[in-house]
Amino acid sequence: MLSVGLTGGLASGKSFVSAALAELGCRVLHADIVGHEVLEPGGEAYAPAVTEFGREILNEDGTIDRRRLGAIVFASPEKLAKLNSFVHPAVFRREEEFMAAAHAADPQGIVVVEAAILVETGSYKKFDRLAVTICDRETQIRRAIKRDGLTQAEVEARLSRQLPAEELRKVADDVIDTSGTKGNTLAQVQEVYRAWRSLGQ
User: Fold this and answer.
1) How far apart are CA 38 and CA 84, in angstroms?
2) CA atoms of 57 and 165, how far apart (whole Å)
């Protein structure tokens, strides 16, 4: 089995690329979705997060308001690190379980873990390959505002906490530039997928 980490900055096209890879037959895990799951009531990170950041991060139904929590942690590296200390171990455990199940089901397959901060955490090193999505900063900002309903200031605050594309490029095995049309991006995805398949021959 070939294991691939897929990462990139905010609104750089990771989800679009991972969906295309899934269509091609890769087994894909979205670590950011798993990160949300572990913060749901009963999830491994829920109680620690509420204890640390207070009940003001909760909605009326007891779920965590992720936008409110995000506003707190993205304004402070220390608070972000604290939240990550609750979330990351739980996410990593679920990733390992997913990869083990994928290997058991299809030893010749390709498993892709899509995550926002694989390089920052150093966890990219556990994969056979690292693929990075990039696009120009203006496109990132425009996409994030449209997709997430964030203000430009909120987007820029989040980008300031992430490694720039140039740094991600340095450790990437494969780079997919999503700045162009969807068709152009899909062509790059197909080329990368063919290369991965040839590695398993």
Assistant:
1) 11
2) 31
State pTM to two decimals: 0.85
Which residue range is the domain that position 174 belongs to?
2-199
Strand-pair category, 129-134 with 174-177: parallel
E-strand spans in the chain? 2-8, 27-30, 110-114, 129-134, 174-177
Distance in angstroms (rounded) separating the CA atoms of residues 75 and 157: 7
Q: What is the DSSP letter of 64?
A: B
Q: What is the mean pLDDT of residues 59-77?
A: 93
CATH number of the domain where residue 179 is located? 3.40.50.300
Closest CA to 189 of 176, 172, 173: 176
Q: Express each pLDDT in 157-201 by its tens digit.
A: 888 878 888 899 999 999 999 999 999 999 999 999 999 999 864
Which has more confidence, 157 or 12? 12
CA atoms within 13 Å, Cβ hemisphere of 88: 14
Number of domains in the chain: 1
Residue 103 has what pLDDT?
92
